[in-house]
Design brief:
The chain is of the alpha/beta class. It has eight helices and nine strands. It starts with a strand and ends with a helix.
Length: 216
């Protein structure tokens, strides 16, 4: 497998990259980043690009599967316009380039409540992205709608608090479908669907992601 990743420096993207590089069925991994990561590995090809300059990188998006893990928060982006550029425009442009270069499969991380009809900007944006990439008609499209994501050994107070609160509810049998998911487990599930070459559009929420993990 020749894998392509955007968002390889994010929490899930880092776990995904590590697992792909360790996978004997993966012979090459290309990542598209804004700056050098410092990671050196025989399988890894790092492309330092200007995401705004599509002509610079569009012909490099060639392989068997594009993993789209790019994303930011409104707080980090600074405005809805800036978040839209990162979470929608960049991801759509890479997907469009992949389709033009005959990449057969796209694996996209979306959001749990993604919907074009949502009143929430973030959920509506993710819903619009899902619909836009569906229209590109990849041979296979896998869309992940994960719950709260938690990095192993996280130092983020918000993640720890949310995980603790949901853990209490889960023990009481409540909100089982909203159980937090480790980013490394999401990465494992993404790799597993990337090895499935049957055509179609597939969506995975929390319970479906966990079912994927139980299958192996």
């Amino acid at each position: 497998m020749h894998a392509l990743i955007i968002g390889a420096t994010g929490a899930t993207g880092r776990d995904l990259l590590e697992q792909l590089l360790a996978d004997p069925q993966v012979n090459r991994v290309d990542i598209f980043v804004r700056r050098e990561t410092g990671i050196k590995q025989e399988k890894l090809q790092t492309h330092v690009v200007d995401f705004n300059n599509v002509a610079q990188w569009k012909d490099l998006v060639k392989g068997d599967v594009l993993f789209s893990c790019l994303g930011t928060t409104l707080k980090v982006a600074g405005s809805k316009e800036a978040q839209w550029k990162i979470d929608y425009e960049y991801q759509y442009q890479f997907a469009e380039a992949a389709k033009a270069n005959n990449v057969p499969q796209l694996v996209l991380i979306s959001a749990d409540m993604a919907s074009t009809n949502s009143r929430l900007f973030y959920s509506r944006m993710k819903g619009k992205l899902e619909e836009a990439v569906k229209a590109l008609n990849f041979f296979r499209l896998d869309i992940f709608n994960p719950p709260l994501l938690v990095r192993k050994n996280t130092d983020r107070g918000g993640e720890r608090i949310a995980k603790t609160i949901l853990g209490i509810f889960n023990k009481l049998g409540l909100f089982r479908s909203q159980r937090p998911l480790l980013t490394e487990d999401l990465a494992k599930a993404m790799i597993r669907v990337a090895k499935n070459k049957s055509p179609g559009v597939f969506k995975y929420r929390n319970m479906q992601i966990r079912e994927l993990l139980r299958e192996h």
